[in-house]
Amino acid sequence: MASFTVVVGEPESGASYQLEAEAQDANRFLGKSIGDEVDGSAVGLDGYTLEITGGSDEAGRPLNETVAGPNITEVLMDERQTGYKPERDGERRRITVRGREVSDAVAQVNTAIVGRGDTSVEELLGLESEEDDE
Q1: Are 11 and 84 in contact (CB under 8 A)?
Q2: pTM (2 decimals)?
C-alpha cells in the first residue's frame, strides 16, 4: 500500500500544508506525472483541484520533469533546476533523479491549488484560529 506526504501550496497566501495520503487516497496520485491535476478530496480538500508540481522519494532524490516514467536515472545537468545548483558558469554535473511519474517509491508529493472550492482551506483542515471568530 502506498502512503506519502502531500505538501499543498496555496499560491494566493503563500501558505503550505503538509497532509498525509494513505491507502486508497494515495492511489489517486499513483501513475500521475508532474503537471497532472488531482482531486483535492484525496487529502481532505473537497471541491479543490491540485496540480502536481514535484516531489521526492524516500532517499531524497527529486522528481525530474524531463525524465519519463518512475525510474531512477542519472541526468547530466548544466543549468539550475530542481536538485542541482551550479556554483560557477559552465559547470555540469551528473545527478541521480527519479522520473516525473508518481510511484510507490515516492515519499513526498508537492502540489499547488489550481481550482478552489466554496470552503476555505483552513476551515476544511480545521486550522481556523480563535482570532478569526472574534
Answers
A1: no
A2: 0.84
